[in-house]
Each structure stands twice: as C-alpha cells, then as structure tokens.
Design goal:
Elements: H1 8-20, E1 31-36, E2 39-45, H2 55-58, H3 75-85, E3 94-97, H4 104-113, E4 117-120, H5 128-135, E5 139-142, H6 150-165, H7 181-184
Parallel strand pairs: 3-4, 4-5
Antiparallel strand pairs: 1-2, 1-3
C-alpha cells in the first residue's frame, strides 16, 4: 500500500474532523484544533456546556429566528475555554476548523487570544466574521488538501506492528535488526 504522508495542514485538519465526531448538537458537527509550532494546544467540538443536557438527548434549543442553537458552545469556544482553564497561551496559534469559517463571536475570540491563522473548509454564511479576522491580520486559508484516511492509516499501523512483532524492522528501512552478538555468540 502506497502511503501518503500528510502535510501539517492535512494532519491537523484530519484531527479537527475527528474532534467533530464528539459533537452533541443536531444542527452540525464541528471540530476545532488549536496548534502552535506544529503541536496541538487544545481541541474542541460543538456541544452543550459540561453537565448540561445534550441536543442529541433533548433536542436543540432554538433562538427566536430558528437560526441557531442556544444550548451549544461552539467548537472554537470550547477549545479556547479548555486552554484558558489550563493556563495555555494561544498567542500565535493556528485554528483548524473541520468545516466553516468562524461565526462573528468566535472570530472575535480568536482575535482576542492572538490567533494568527485560520484554516477552514467552507465559508460561513455571515461574512462579517471574515472582516473581523482580516482587519486583525489573521491569515485565512481555505483547506484544499487531502484528509487522512484513518482506516488506511490504521491498517498501515497494524501491518507495521505485525512486521515488528515478527522480528522485521518497522522503521521503513526494509531490513531486519542486526543480531546482538552478546546473545547470539561470536
């Protein structure tokens, strides 16, 4: 199997998509990953505040216009809140979003924490947030890469582990480790 080694944007966007699988709102599954120096600082997904009922269980609490869920904390907000709770500075970070560009409230939060770059897959319907991000000189990048096929990655991992446990080298060099002369005699 030919392996595709993902670039950093592909890797972190895949993590954002995986984070979105934890979403508890019926109106959308969104994931966010906050990264600096190619290291994950925090992740988040959209869902109810800790200890509160989930939309999946009790339904969405709609605003008066029926446009949004009032029960849900956005993925970006959850990721920022977790970092703040644990004393992690987000200055200079990149925010990977599994789908849309941020809403206006999340864009304002990203400006406030010092985010420098937002990588997204789709434009959000409210372009005021884009103005806020651009006015703050935050780089906006539409993701055009290839998401990691997690099933294929797992299969490659399992094959490498099988080779390794059979005594073959799993480092990719194709050879077996050299025998240790202390245990195999000289």
């Amino acid at each position: 199997m030919e392996a595709h080694r993902p670039n950093w944007d592909e890797y972190f966007m895949t993590l954002a998509v995986i984070a979105s699988s934890r979403s508890t709102c019926l109106r959308g599954c969104i994931g966010a990953v906050l990264v600096k120096d190619n290291r994950v600082l925090s992740t988040g997904y959209n869902g109810s505040p800790a200890g509160q009922p989930h939309c999946l269980d009790v339904g969405c609490l709609q605003d008066e216009r029926g446009k949004g869920c009032l029960r849900t904390v956005h993925a970006e907000q959850n990721a920022i809140a977790w970092a703040a709770r644990h004393g992690i500075s987000l200055a200079g970070c990149t925010c990977y979003l599994s789908s849309y560009t941020p809403c206006l409230a999340c864009a304002n939060l990203l400006v406030q924490v010092g985010c420098q770059r937002v990588v997204y897959r789709t434009l959000y319907r409210d372009d005021r947030a884009l103005t806020v991000l651009r006015d703050a000189d935050i780089e906006l990048v539409e993701f055009k890469g290839q998401l990691v096929d997690v099933g294929s990655a797992l299969q490659m991992h399992d094959e490498a582990m099988t080779r390794s446990s059979a005594g073959g080298c799993s480092c990719g060099s194709g050879g077996s480790p050299a025998p240790d002369e202390r245990t195999h005699g000289a």
